[in-house]
Structure prediction request, 146 residues.
Amino acid sequence: MNSYDNDVIAWANEQAQLLRAGCFHALDIEHIADEIEDVGKSEQRELESRMAVLLGHLLKWWLQPERRGNSWRNTIGEQRKRLARRIQKTPSLKSDLQDAEWWPAIWADALEIATKETGLWYNAFPESCPWTFDQIMNPEFLPTEL
Prediction:
């Protein structure tokens, strides 16, 4: 029997074979449960990362009008599309988006992206997200007024 700690891929293949064969008594239930939970956490991390990138680019667009270009516009559009797809495929992620405690961490990540890429100090940016979720996800919305 393959060890979870030694080779997780071999372990996963073995566990799948045991499941398909109906050998439930031989399953590594604790590690299977951990892996299932990790799938959900991975989906949440992707949502967080994509939202932070989107917000970071919206900030750059807003605060550096002289540098606006197709690259930023494309990144904003791509992140919106992928976020919408992720939310559609995993509707339970909507609860994260409605959680008031979720947004400050995402905003902090977006500020980190924007400060690194613009060279502006943190105090140049709003303390919290100035846009609604509907604005953030609206394909027509690009912040233009400071």
